[in-house]
Write a structure and sequence with these properties.
The structure is a single chain. The chain is mostly helical. The chain has one domain. The protein is built from 8 helices and no strands. The two termini are 20 Å apart.
Amino acid sequence: MASASRLSTSVLLTCAAIGVATGALSAGAGAISGPVSAAVPLVYGLVLGVHVLPGVIAQDLLRRPWVALITHLIAALVASAVVPLWIGRYVGTALLIGALQEGIAALGRYRRWDAWRFFLGAVIVGVLIAVPIWFAADVSRFAVWGQIVYIGLFILGPVLWTAVGIAVGAALRRAGVARSSRL
C-alpha cells in the first residue's frame, strides 16, 4: 500500500486559495511598481514587500513544511497569468522568498512559529532585494538621506507585509480554516 501523502488535499487547497488571492495582489503590485518607481521611487520597497505575503499567511495558518514554497509558486503562477512577460521575475521571487521562509521554519524543525521568525525572514528578504535594486536603480543618485530612506523602506516593506500576513493568518485560524487543514 502506498504511504499517505504528507500534505492533505485540504492543505493543498488552502495553499491554492491563499496563492490565488496573494497572486492577484502581487499582479496588482507589479502593475503599480513601474509608476511608483518612476513617480515616487523612495516608496518602491513598500510595494515590493507584498511578495512575502503568500508564505507568511500559509505558514502562520497551516504550520506545516512546504506550505510557504507551494503557496508562493501558486501565487507566482497567478501573477504570471496576468503579466506573462514577468513569469521569470515572479517565479524567481517565489523560489527565493519561499525557500528562505521554509529554511527559517526548518531551523525550528517546523515546531516553533514565533512571530519573530517571520519578521527575521522579512528583514532578510528586504536586504536580499535591496542589494541588487541598489545597483539596478542607481540609488547612489539620491542624496544620502534618500539612500537611507530607500534602503530602509526596502527592509520595512516586507516587515509591514509580514505583520499583515500574520494578522490574516490569525483571522483565518479564528474562522476555523486551519482546523480542517492541519492534518
